[in-house]
Automatic annotation (TrEMBL):
It is found in: Cytoplasm. InterPro entries: ARM-like, ARM-type_fold, UCS_central_dom. Pfam families: UNC45-central (PF11701). GO terms for molecular function: Hsp90 protein binding. It comes from Spongospora subterranea. Keywords: Cytoplasm. The lineage of its organism: Eukaryota, Sar, Rhizaria, Endomyxa, Phytomyxea. PANTHER family: FI21225P1 (PTHR45994:SF1). Residues 146-265 form the UNC-45/Cro1/She4 central domain. This is UNC-45/Cro1/She4 central domain-containing protein. It comes from the Eukaryota.
Amino acid sequence: DDGGRARARACLGVLTQLTTCAYHDLIPQLDADQIASFLVMSEFDPAWMALCNAMMTPSDSDATATAVITSLCQSLHAGLLDPNHSPAVVTGLIAIVRKSCDTLRIVRQELLQPLLLAVKSPPSELITLLTLLAKVEFQPDGGKAATCEDEFVNMCQGLLTPLLSPKSDLCSSALTALSMLLIVAPTQVHSFIAQSERLSCLLDLATSSESDLREKATQVLALASSDTSIRKAIIEADFSFIFFDALSSTNPSASAYSCLALSKLAGTDSTLNKTILSDPDLIDAVCFAIQNPTTQAVAFEALMYLSVYSPTKTALAGDAARLRQVLTSTPGQPYALAHIIASFATSSDDLRFDSQVDSDTEKMKALAAKGVPGSEKGIDLTAAAGSADEIAQVRLVLIESGAASVLSNIVENSSPELQTVQLHTTIAKALLRLSSCPTGSGRLVADGALKSLVNIALTDRESRPETLLYDASLAVARICIRMNPALVGDRVLGALPKLLLEFLESALHEMHEYEALLALTNVASLDEETRERILSLNGWQKLTSCLSSANSKIQVAALEAMTNLIACKAGFNRLSVNGEQDVKIFALFARAGESDRELCAALAGLAMMSTDPKLAKLIMTADGLKIAKAAKSRSTNPDVHARASALVNNLIRTPVESR
């Protein structure tokens, strides 16, 4: 009765707590018959199943679990067929199977058919259980667990093959099972589906007059299209029309899976690629599916495939409202969203510029497009990414639509289990691409991108892959070039000198070295405290070493950064003690400078040094007056003239005894 059940549940709560603490041994252990009795009486209540699972003795858990499953198979079979009980039975089986490997064999032999064809349980739970059944099997001789996906899929095929016919009453259930198996053991199921007779059957079902069979067959084919041979067969049979037709389906799932199928087919055939990417209904359907929680994951997978193509990028960038809708409607898809933003913001030039262009291209295939391999008429993903001019506009729209804010929120607010190296690597790549936008630095700082990048770059550096740290540091440098340092928080600002100096030393490209120098110059312009922090990190010596570069742009950028460092007490103190060599370096660049920028940097440094009598004497010795006069005669630039005049005035005002 109700009162007895209430008291039983109260006892259940106490017992459940005891099983998780030191008093576990005080609880009387249940034998298999008692556990079976409890489970049947409770109508497979999840709480009772959890308690019974916990009360199995650790030393005898395998034997107890096996005995329970064996004695319960008939009841469990009935429970799986009952829509009211099947979710609880599946949950309990997951717990017991995880605890005892030996139960896998029994469950697979006795319960596989109802699990595949009759269970009305949340798909995620059922897929979890099927995955456990597919991965390992306990060896009777006590050997190690061995993978047995082939054996598992063979068992499933034996059950499903006779049912894959429109004449079968269980055809719909068989198609649902096949969809789940494509997630559980994709490689083996691809081989099963790729057989010509079976694929032909699925294509026929996808054109069936029965909407349920048609939509479920479309879903199976969409999932199976990750396999190259299956995609080729669909294209050669000229059956891609079934997916175009289903785009406008009133069934959200059918429309979403059609988007997924077409996005995969687009990477296989160049002619079909143009047809798919030019269809306006495709982007409409993808964006609509993203708004639906039940189809969001499928839609994002489709958009991950499509995001490597410039037509997709420009289509969404041309509709800022829809783009913002996509960016802000994805609480459960942070990883996919970061990949999509990274792909959208990547141009062909970006891929070609990388010194490891081949690996970067493969990375874009594997990460942004889930590794769809090309056929004989496959697509060149580097060329398909879009020109620099096209992607520059896409980046600007992404930034204005809040892409950086979305990525920063993922870093700052996602749960710890989501904060993986893989996710951070993708976010760093996405923010790196966005940081290339010349007018976006202010918005990137305001949206938290700089803060997130610094957090990524400074967290567990020893365990982070070099590519992650490099991308994050390069993105930091690019943002720092054009930002206003006064608008950056103290914690982030305090971390920048060390981060930028380390990146300067590790830069793999001259362009990246140059960007690090420009970033240091801008950061050093903020205040004396920042300049002194850079000097305390051996910044002067690191900048001086860049003057020996064969690249004149790097030389000038280093000279500009050094000039900014002079304007602080620590800088003057250092030069006063041992600045003769530094004076000679600046004098050399001022004397031999070929560009106005080089002359401005060298003369500005000498002008600031000349305010100190001791340094002014060294400059006079180095023919500072002649250098200033020569610079004015070589250049008509007003900035050069202003700095040369300042140098002359300071030297003239120097006391005679110091000259």
